[in-house]
Amino acid sequence: MKRVMIFGFSGAGKSTLARRIAEKIGTEPTHLDALHWLPGWVESSREHKRNALRPILEREKWVIDGNYTRVLFNERLNMADTVIFMDFNRFVCLFRVIKRYLNYRGRSRPDMGEGCPEKIDLEFLRWVLLDGRKNRGKYRSAIRGAAASGKRTETLKTPREVKDFLNNL
Known about the structure:
Strand order of the largest sheet: 2-5-1-6-7
Structural class: alpha/beta
Oligomer: single chain
CATH topology: Rossmann fold
Helix content: 40-55%
Largest sheet: 5 strands, parallel
Strand content: 15-25%
Order of helices and strands: EHEHEEHEHEHHHEH
CATH architecture: 3-Layer(aba) Sandwich
Distance between the termini: 9 Å
CATH superfamily: P-loop containing nucleotide triphosphate hydrolases
CATH class: Alpha Beta
Radius of gyration: 15 Å
């Protein structure tokens, strides 16, 4: 396991899993949210994200978490040796998002760009519960394709499955 791609739903724990895997394989995680959000919750351009991500993809080892299907998604998928889909229940994700908000309220969390203090608004809650799940079919197709091409794949649906996965690394 040298190149790990993690995608899934907001609040599933992608960034936490990325940090733990990166620690085990001896690299730093790359959080796509940190590339996407500039200070003050300003969105960066697609080109900015692509330019920042290209050199990371050339490294011998990497762990990248985040969806961003328009930002070198297929390239990440093709170059990864391990692909993980975090397919958590929307209400587990909602609970975790609220817990994360309470934990980081007023501060930027480690997997987010500086100057982006943790927040919850109706738009984000709608994303967690509804809109962010619209790509589920694409994610399932991506994980099936990765498995068919011989890559190590995992679909993790519960915190227990994540714990077991990490314990078996």
